[in-house]
């Protein structure tokens, strides 16, 4: 992964420039550069919690939490993963609105800075038991079928061109259902489509789901858009024949083999890579991997 001076990134943010476009222009990358998304979200860490102070923002989140909480209560998951959890500003109201919250809740994001904010925000909203970790959408360090429901809320959004890889990975981890609130190019206005094209937002999610053999059971317009020019859809995929429940355990993003917990890291004896734990948060992306094949001897 290319590295950039975070001071320059922050200066760009203060000037109102689009960090994703800035990084991608230097990488000569198409839409969906993971590096660009990481730097953009890291620089913005804390802004989502801060935004909740603006008029109407809290009410919008509560409406989101009520609607998705009712949906999840219908499915009754024992475990829930929010992929792209950000700062936890959606997950907290969802869990608080559920009649029967899942026994285990996990959330990951590509940005550790956002997860540090999320940890504080979730704790202050009565959800201190959420297991947070860094990961990428197309390489989730969890065993196949190890979470009942996987949830995304505008997380797949900036990844045009990677729709199939990401949806396949989300469905791999989800044992019973995938629930998404994501931009809908197909339902959007002409103006909103032009914006999605300019920003490289995903399109054709329902078509992609059909192509990979997991068509959506429900698709409807999402009524609670914080930006009227970013029109979203609620997409629900419930698996007709979910496999048996398996343990929700971390696996190496390098090999897919099981990770073993150590005091300061998660370690994979099979592929010899260690993944650090910072402020209690496991860092489980490929870029976090440290080759340390002799670690288990010490």
Task: Describe what you observe in this structure.
With 298 residues, the protein is α/β, with parallel strands linked by helices. It has three domains: 6-44, no CATH class; 57-238, 3-Layer(aba) Sandwich (Rossmann fold), CATH 3.40.50; 260-297, no CATH class. Helices cover 34% and strands 20% of the residues. It has helices at residues 6-14, 19-27, 34-43, 47-51, 57-75, 91-97, 112-124, 163-173, 190-199, 205-211, and strands at residues 79-83, 104-109, 131-134, 147-153, 174-183, 218-221, 232-238, 260-261, 265-268, 273-278, 281-282, 290-291. A seven-stranded mixed beta sheet has the order 3-2-1-4-5-7-6.
Helix-strand layout with pairing:
Layout: H1 6-14, H2 19-27, H3 34-43, H4 47-51, H5 57-75, E1 79-83, H6 91-97, E2 104-109, H7 112-124, E3 131-134, E4 147-153, H8 163-173, E5 174-183, H9 190-199, H10 205-211, E6 218-221, E7 232-238, E8 260-261, E9 265-268, E10 273-278, E11 281-282, E12 290-291
Parallel strand pairs: 1-2, 1-4, 2-3, 4-5
Antiparallel strand pairs: 5-7, 6-7, 8-9, 9-10, 10-11, 10-12
Quick one: CATH superfamily of the largest domain?
A: Vaccinia Virus protein VP39
Characterize the largest beta sheet: strand count, sense, and whether it forms a barrel.
7 strands, mixed
Helix % is 25-40%
- β-strand percent reads 15-25%
Level-1 CATH class name of the largest domain: Alpha Beta
Q: Which regions have little confidence, pLDDT < 50, spanning 5+ residues?
A: none
CATH architecture of the largest domain: 3-Layer(aba) Sandwich
Mean pLDDT: 92
Task: Write out the strand line-up for the largest beta sheet, numbering strands in chain order.
Answer: 3-2-1-4-5-7-6
The CATH topology name of the largest domain reads Rossmann fold
Summarize the helix and strand pattern as letters: HHHHHEHEHEEHEHHEEEEEEE
Straight-line distance between termini: 30 Å
Category by helix and strand content: alpha/beta
* Large-scale geometry: globular
Extended strand count: 12
What's the gyration radius in Å?
19 Å
Number of domains: 3
Individual helix count: 10
């Amino acid at each position: 992964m290319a590295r950039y001076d975070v001071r320059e990134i922050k200066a760009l943010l203060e000037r109102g420039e689009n960090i994703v476009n800035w990084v991608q222009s230097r990488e000569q990358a198409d839409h969906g550069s993971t590096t660009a998304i990481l730097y953009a979200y890291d620089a913005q860490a804390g802004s989502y919690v801060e935004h909740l102070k603006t008029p109407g923002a809290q009410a919008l989140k509560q409406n989101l939490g009520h609607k998705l909480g009712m949906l999840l209560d219908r499915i009754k998951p024992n475990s829930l993963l929010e992929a792209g959890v950000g700062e936890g500003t959606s997950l907290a109201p969802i869990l608080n609105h559920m009649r029967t919250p899942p026994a285990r809740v996990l959330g990951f994001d590509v940005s550790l800075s956002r997860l540090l904010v999320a940890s504080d925000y979730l704790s202050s909203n009565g959800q201190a038991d959420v297991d947070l970790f860094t990961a990428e959408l197309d390489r989730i360090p969890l065993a196949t079928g190890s979470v009942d429901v996987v949830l995304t809320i505008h997380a797949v959004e900036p990844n045009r061109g990677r729709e199939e890889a990401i949806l396949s990975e989300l469905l791999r981890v989800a044992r019973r259902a995938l629930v998404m609130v994501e931009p809908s190019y197909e339902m959007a206005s002409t103006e909103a489509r032009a914006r999605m094209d300019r920003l490289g937002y995903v399109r054709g999610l329902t078509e992609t789901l059909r192509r990979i053999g997991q068509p959506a059971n429900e698709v409807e317009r999402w009524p609670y858009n914080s930006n009227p020019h970013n029109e979203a859809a609620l997409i629900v995929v419930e698996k007709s024949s979910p496999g048996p429940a398996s343990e929700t355990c971390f696996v190496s993003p390098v090999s897919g083999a099981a990770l073993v917990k150590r005091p300061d890291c998660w370690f994979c004896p099979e592929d010899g890579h260690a993944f650090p734990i910072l402020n209690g948060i496991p860092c489980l992306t490929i870029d976090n991997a440290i080759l340390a094949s002799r670690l288990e001897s010490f």
